From TrEMBL:
Pfam families in alphabetical order: Sacchrp_dh_C, Sacchrp_dh_NADP
Positions of the Saccharopine dehydrogenase-like C-terminal domain: 137-385
PANTHER family: CARBOXYNORSPERMIDINE SYNTHASE
Name recorded for this polypeptide: Saccharopine dehydrogenase (NAD+, L-lysine forming)
Superkingdom, taxonomy of origin: Bacteria
Domain (Saccharopine dehydrogenase NADP binding) ranges: 4-133
Amino acid sequence: MAKVMIIGAGGVGNVVAHKVAQLSSVFTEIVLASRTLAKCDAIAASIDHPIRTVAVDADNVEELTALLKQEQPELVINVALPYQDLSIMDACLAAGVHYMDTANYEPPETAKFEYSWQWAYQERFEKAGLTALLGSGFDPGATNMFTAYLAKHYFDEIHELDIIDVNGGDHGYPFATNFNPEINIREVTAECRHWEGGQFVTTDAMSEKAEFTCPDEVGTYNIYRMYHEELESLTKHFPSLKRAQFWMSFGDSYLKHLEVLQNVGMTGIEPVNFNGTEIIPIQFLRQLLPEPATLGPRTHGKTCIGCVVTGVKDGEQKTMYLYQVKDHQDCYKEVQSQAISYTTGVPAMIGAKMIVEGHWKKPGVWNMEQMDPDLFMEDMNKYGLPWNVIELKDFKLN
Ligand code: NDP
């Protein structure tokens, strides 16, 4: 049905390649492109289905445009880093190819986590008759769909949203990040913003803590409020929301290391001159930390990510929780990856499927919740991320 090009051969790229290859009736031809060809080749060799590999620097719009014109895929699945989003969107426009990603564009020099740069492409994609789907991972991605699904099927109006991301997995290292370390650390050290009474309110990073007991015996975890990009699009597209917060679980060892690294300046994104060489501390730190892609075999335990929505149905207030639980080792058995990459890669594959099958093909730049969630949610159940929805009584985090 469609030829796709995956850009990025890291932890998430590996999962997307596996899942896309499992669906050869939809994705008839697969090209895996990334900066380091050897990483593409290693992924292709681990999959029992033909995948062509090619080296490309996605920061170089001309080089990427030429590759896209030569290959003519219908869609690019961008799972490189957020820094490449705009150059890949530019190349897609120049070559007439649909676009999707799993993370908002980030300028390398400032940590922003906002959609403004990509939303600015709306008119260009619309005029070109091309679809750009933003943030089709788990959070953002599945969490946007969960919110849209609850709003559509369980409420007349939604008022409060708590997105709760628990990773109960243990990889045995004192400190490692389970997706790209640079992006992960930038995210968790950023000031917290949450939506309250029609505006974003800023508080210190990690200053709000709560305890959350996950369903299905996943356990009880400390969760910390932080900013996450889907809050920006969800509060825009669901203006009835009075409050929206994002929470993530962190273990004590992770927090202890992060505090020290921050205090000594190792998480900085400003260049530092070291013996005549400019280095960016967080990029150097990245070199020292384990590659997220190597955590798969060592990670045990489960993730539990979901959305708690409070709103009104037929005049009555209620609270619903839609969540997904995934076992790290089950992911490793299927695609040789831990659950963080898996839970990102599967929604990326499903988003791609929604576009190439035509359900979500509409010119312009879209966040997930602007699309109808039903087919996506059906596919989550089919392709490895079954979910559940329950009513919560007396839910209160803060
Ligand atoms: P990794 O660091 O493991 O992989 C990134 C890949 O992108 C590497 O193969 C890297 O190549 C490649 N790359 C980097 N720069 C370029 C470039 N200029 N041109 C071509 N390729 C390049 O990251 P992850 O797989 O963990 O994450 C991938 C994306 O998924 C990120 O944007 C991340 O933010 C997002 N993500 C989204 C989540 C969600 O739920 N929405 C959750 C987790 C991640 P090289 O090997 O040469 O460095």
